[in-house]
């Protein structure tokens, strides 16, 4: 049984050693296990005022936001309930009444 760690990119267990490097044959990711940080700190999402956001929080929009591809606008003061935090350019996945599912950036909301 291999004692090598799984690939940090795709979590494949088919990792093999090549000298000091570890290589994943599925995604071709190469890394040096001695350079790896012990554990990355969990990402912290903050609103426009610096308050920490968590899944399930309610937030309020602080700026009129045009919805790309339509004539709809999310107005200032719109309350969004039960947000879900995700990685990426837009940090918040949510549903807005009257508009539907969309993603928002944390810089345009404040914790309600």
UniProtKB/TrEMBL annotation:
Task: List, alphabetically, the Pfam families matched.
Answer: YjdM (PF03831), Zn_Ribbon_YjdM (PF08274)
Q: What are the Protein YjdM N-terminal domain coordinates in residue numbering? A: 3-32
User: Where in the numbering of this chain does the Protein YjdM C-terminal domain appear?
Assistant: 46-112
Note the superkingdom of the native organism: Bacteria
Q: What's this protein's family per the entry?
A: Belongs to the YjdM family.
Q: Which PANTHER family match?
A: PROTEIN YJDM (PTHR30305:SF3), PROTEIN YJDM-RELATED (PTHR30305)
Spell out the protein name for this chain. Alkylphosphonate utilization protein
Source organism of this protein record: Chitinibacter fontanus
